[in-house]
Write a structure and sequence with these properties.
The complex is a heterodimer of chains A (278) and B (345). Chain A is an all-alpha fold and 278 residues long. Chain A contains 15 helices and no strands. Chain A has 2 domains: 2-59; 67-274, MetI-like fold. In chain A, 71% of the residues lie in helices and 0% in strands. The relative contact order of chain A is 0.13. Chain B has a domain at 80-170 and 205-344: MetI-like (MetI-like fold, Orthogonal Bundle), CATH 1.10.3720.10. Chain B has helices at 10-44, 65-71, 76-110, 118-130, 133-143, 149-156, 171-178, 187-190, 198-201, 207-234, 237-245, 250-277, 282-287, 299-308, 313-344, and strands at 192-193, 196-197. Chain B has a two-stranded antiparallel sheet. In chain B, helix 14 packs antiparallel against helix 15 (313-344). The longest helix of chain B is centred in the N-terminal third of the chain and has 35 residues, at 10-44. Chain B is globular. Mean pLDDT of chain B is 86; it is low at 1-8. The chains are: A mainly alpha (278), B mainly alpha (345). At the A-B interface, helix 1, helix 4, helix 5, helix 6 and helix 10 of A face helix 1, helix 3, helix 4, helix 5 and helix 6 of B.
């Protein structure tokens, strides 16, 4: 009797997990299936998994008769620029704060701490004011430059650099290498795990960014996927529910972050602390 | 490049390098976080009309007028802020405990030592956190549409689902209504705070907001699950085994051994949750723009729409600072609380 109960209890958590996992995955499956069905079918029978007509009309329309390709290009331009720039600037600053003694270091450090505490949505209006004053409104520079550094990234890099033994650098310094040389060709290559963390967080962060682009741009040529699909969602396409095309757009915009996620999954799993999304 | 050769002034060169290294990051965050906050602080106490630079002549200091209008008035501005605060309060009160409990539950389930396919489950639960809020809202608008999948599933168990995103009824009002309690002749209806009657304050989240609450739990529980898993793995297996040999059952082990050791991480998750849930913006912008009947209006969206849609910049900035104050107070309280428990140990 006792053994039998133990057996049941051993399986119970597994069953619960399977049920929960189904709940978490099902919405995405429903999304994929319905993006390949005709509009009217989707409204009439949203859960017929694969029964009935299949059509790629939504995708065809997105690629041939909408600005979707343009949005995608803009998202890539911004995301790649931000990711490259951020890795460089954030690791430079992190290295200085970790290793180079200079006057005012404490002050700069305090500035970064204070800035981490400022909630993002509070900045919507003021960021627009500054971007506008600097003449960067509605331009790539206004979209990219403000995202090129973030305080949290500086911290991740600083903490990692502090874990590298100083002795490694001492030898190079004795050999006459300059500060930048030591940073670039010795310390940075040793910091690949931290660099990858920044790459993942920057890519995911800037690809999924919406509010910053709302306040820094207005023209259609500069629309990113987030802004474009948001417009689509609020029903700019007239007549009908347009669910298949909306679902298809939302699905496609998820593919690049999903790829980055699956490729670097192991690493993401270990840096969850920095990846909190709200 | 910098300090190519150690000369006499090696320390001077290194100091210069230090400054050059932090300069780009410091200038960017200074220019796009620090300066904007100061600028908005000024705008929130000015009568700037949005035309010309805010520091130009002709823009006047009006003191706390914009704040007074929002917090002490009886007009639309106060009512909107009151509504937004109420909506967001219920959102916070439901999302934070739910996401914390579910994340902890998932972490414990996934972290079991005898688990198979651990990686698969972690991926399944974390995946929603990776996708953009825009994509998730689009999906949610479909799932919770009048004839959508959620209502379809509900119809299998003979429940006639609501038209979620069009339904402004507060869920507490619905429950109270079932017991015959309504706003009519209700003593709460006479009370008033921030332009909202007491009866309206206890409305609970609207049906539309409830859909957003479920969405928040769906997208953030995976992230917090990872934090809990990391913490669980720190807990020494020996401690658990010791408790097991002492005859503690699974529930006792969890309640008296594991949970107390998880206290610091629970605090972290609750803090991050509180800070995050007061910043609801993307979802509202994409999904409902505050509707139906303003029941999904949040302070963050109200601030944005006051400034960018109604061009009332001082009011928008003032709302942003009120929100800022709420978040700062919560963070400080949390710090004090943690400090106290650590001293007490």
């Amino acid at each position: 009797m006792n053994i039998r109960r133990e057996g049941v209890w051993a399986w119970a958590p597994f069953v619960v997990l399977i049920v929960l996992a189904t709940i978490y995955i099902a919405p995405f499956l429903v999304q994929v299936v319905n993006s390949f069905r005709p509009d009217a079918d989707v409204v009439r029978e949203p859960l017929s998994l694969g029964i009935g007509t299949w059509t790629a009309a939504a995708y065809e329309r997105l690629f041939t008769r909408s600005d979707f390709p343009l949005w995608t290009m803009n998202s890539f331009i911004v995301t790649l620029s931000v990711t490259l720039g951020r890795v460089f600037f954030v690791s430079l600053a992190g290295y200085a704060l970790a290793r180079i003694p200079f006057r005012g270091r404490g002050l700069v450090y305090a500035l970064f701490i204070a800035i981490m505490a400022v909630p993002g949505v509070v900045l919507l209006i003021p960021k627009f004011l500054v971007i506008n004053q600097l003449g960067m409104y509605d331009s790539y520079s206004g979209m990219i430059i403000p995202l090129l550094a973030d305080a949290a990234g500086v911290f991740i890099m600083k903490n990692f650099f502090e874990s590298i033994p100083v002795a490694v650098e001492e030898q190079a310094r004795i050999d006459g290498a300059g500060v930048f040389r030591i940073f670039w060709s010795i310390v940075l290559p040793m910091s690949l795990p931290a660099v990858m963390t920044i790459v993942i967080l920057s890519f995911q962060g800037s690809w999924n960014e919406l509010s910053h682009f709302i306040v820094s741009t207005q023209s259609t040529e500069l629309t990113t996927l987030t802004r474009g699909v948001a417009q689509l969602a609020s029903g700019q396409l007239s007549q009908g529910s347009q669910f298949p095309i909306k679902l298809a757009a939302a699905l496609l915009m998820t593919v690049p972050v999903a790829l980055v996620f699956f490729i670097f999954q192991k690493r993401i799993m270990n840096v969850g602390a920095g990846a909190v999304k709200e | 490049m910098i300090a190519m050769r150690p000369r006499g002034s090696i320390h001077g060169n290194r100091a210069l390098a230090g400054w050059l290294f932090v300069a780009p990051a410091a200038i960017i965050v200074g220019l796009f976080v620090l300066v904007p906050v100061l600028m908005a602080a000024w705008v929130s106490v000015s009568d700037w009309s949005g035309i010309g630079p805010p520091f130009a002549e002709g823009v006047n200091f009006v003191g706390a007028e914009n704040y007074a209008e929002l917090l002490g008035g009886t007009g639309l501005a106060t009512r909107d802020l009151g509504t937004a605060l109420r909506n967001n309060l219920f959102y916070v009160l439901l999302v934070v405990p739910l996401q914390t409990a579910i994340a902890l539950g998932l972490a414990i389930l996934v972290n079991r030592r005898v688990m198979r396919a651990r990686g698969f489950f972690r991926t399944a639960f974390y995946f929603p956190s990776v996708t953009s809020s825009v994509a998730i809202v689009v999906l949610w608008l479909f799932l919770f549409s009048a004839t959508g999948p959620v209502n379809k599933v509900l119809s299998w168990i003979w429940i006639d689902g609501p038209n979620w995103f069009q339904d402004p009824r507060g869920i507490f009002h619905i429950v109270l209504g079932a017991f015959g309690i309504t706003g009519q002749d209700n003593p709460l209806a006479a009370a008033n705070f921030l332009g909202i009657s007491g009866w309206e304050w206890v409305a609970g989240p609207s049906v539309a907001m409830s859909a957003f609450i479920l969405m928040a739990v769906f997208t953030t529980s995976g992230t917090f699950m990872l934090l809990f898993i990391a913490a669980l793995q720190q807990i020494n297996a020996e401690v658990e085994e010791a408790a097991m040999t002492d005859g503690a059952n699974a529930w006792q082990r969890f309640w008296y051994v594991t949970l107390p050791m998880l206290k610091p991480i629970v605090f972290t998750v609750v803090t991050l949750g509180l800070i995050g849930t007061w910043q609801v913006f993307d979802q509202i912008y994409v999904g409902t723009q505050g509707g139906p009947a303003k029941t999904t209006l949040t302070p963050a969206y109200l601030s944005f729409s006051a400034a960018f849609n109604n061009h009332d910049w001082p009011r928008g900035a003032a709302i942003a600072f009120i929100l800022f104050a709420i978040i700062v107070v919560l963070t400080v309280l949390q710090r004090l609380w943690i400090g106290r428990t650590e001293v007490g140990r």
